[in-house]
Write a structure and sequence with these properties.
Helix content is about 80%, strand content about 0%. It is mostly helical. The longest helix has 30 residues, at about 125-155. The chain starts with 6 loop residues before the first helix and ends in a 7-residue tail after the last helix.
Length: about 160
């Protein structure tokens, strides 16, 4: 009986480890529905603020918006806790910079659009600005999630990326 591992067996084992790592990293990303839920909540909240001037209605809209965001994020976090987690060392500086840049683009475009529309006297400026942001989230969110997963995969020891 020999304890030596044949090269084919070692290659298969390494390939399986690689596939499992990719699976764990893929499951840790944000699901597509997350972006749609956040986009909907933003537009609905902005429409409520633009449409009704009463403090009570805006207060209710705020509570519903916060509850919706917390529920959405909670569902993603709960799903994440129930599955295997990638190691923290996979989140290198490039991932952090990319996260901050994506957030800055979203906030910057949203603020610029809303402020320009508001200064121009366009009615429902907040709703239109939130709609612009929603389009960015719906189109860019899944693309960014894939890009971020690529960065995380590239941070694996021995990565070929």
């Amino acid at each position: 009986m020999t304890d030596q591992v044949h090269p084919e067996e070692a290659a298969r084992a390494l390939s399986e480890i690689d596939q499992r790592q990719e699976q764990v990293i893929g499951m840790a990303g944000l699901p597509h529905w997350f972006w749609g839920a956040i986009a909907f909540l933003m537009v609905a909240f902005a429409a409520a603020v633009d449409t009704w001037q009463g403090g009570l209605v805006q207060g209710i809209a705020t509570v519903l918006f916060v509850a919706g965001v917390l529920t959405t994020v909670g569902l993603v976090a709960f799903r994440s806790v129930r599955s295997a987690q990638p190691r923290n060392n996979l989140l290198g500086p490039r991932v952090v910079v990319a996260d901050l840049a994506f957030a800055a683009v979203i906030v910057g475009v949203s603020l610029a659009a809303t402020l320009i529309l508001n200064a121009s006297g366009v009615p429902y400026a907040a709703t239109i600005g939130a709609s612009v942001t929603a389009v960015i989230l719906l189109a860019g969110g899944p693309m960014y999630t894939r890009y971020r997963q690529g960065l995380v995969l590239a941070n694996r020891p021995g990565s070929r990326r």
